[in-house]
């Protein structure tokens, strides 16, 4: 009987924190409605690069060859990969619809981060880790990048996903999981090149784990 009561408490606690998790995500949607920009430059960066992505639809080869050239109004330090994908969505959806879809990425990051914490801290109550993951929705940077599409937050998603699969790989060493780790960090690097350095870290750690010198 006591065990059942304890299980019931855990279920109630998990649902309570799940509700907290969802409420904080809803504040991101509220920020979308209010055109929130806590970074102060997210609106400019997003709208500026959105115009570049439109140029891919007008003349793909010209835009690709001159990507990054400020004299031709294509100046940017970003990789073109994200903006090429965005240009595909622009053929079917308006900028505002794309922005709404983009808010889901912060939700996905929080979920994958939570699942990573479960793998890393197996002796910690899951609802404690859920509440910790919820604070991602309060990050001024991530909120702004979720509301105003930018390549960094999508690169971050694949990077966090690579962490999750790396933790799974450490628990159960096998080639398939190591491949998924490297594949995700490659996606992250192509979307936002700053993540490329982590490929070397994963590569050597995987070799070390499977005893290849």
List the helices and strands and how they pair.
Layout lengths: L1 H32 L8 H17 L1 H6 L14 H11 L4 H8 L1 H17 L5 H9 L5 H8 L3 H21 L3 H17 L5 H13 L4
Helix pairs in contact: 1-7, 1-8, 2-4, 6-7, 6-9, 9-10, 10-11
Describe this entry's structure for a reader.
Helix content is 75%, strand content 0%. The protein is an all-alpha fold and 213 residues long. The protein has a domain of 61 residues. α1 packs parallel to α7, α9 runs antiparallel to α10 and α10 runs antiparallel to α11. It starts with a helix and ends with a helix. The model has no long low-confidence stretch (mean pLDDT 86).
List keywords for this structure.
213 residues, mainly alpha
Radius of gyration: 20 Å
Number of helices in the DSSP assignment: 11
Structural class: mainly alpha
What is the overall silhouette?
flat
Distance between the termini: 54 Å
Kindly estimate the percentage of residues that lie in beta strands according to DSSP: under 5%
Compute the average pLDDT: 86
Largest sheet: none
Percent helix: over 70%
Name the helix and strand elements from N-terminus to C-terminus, one letter apiece.
HHHHHHHHHHH
Number of strands: 0
Low-confidence stretches: none
Give a short summary of the structure.
Helices cover 75% and strands 0% of the residues. It contains eleven helices and no strands. The chain has helices at 2-33, 42-58, 60-65, 80-90, 95-102, 104-120, 126-134, 140-147, 151-171, 175-191, 197-209.
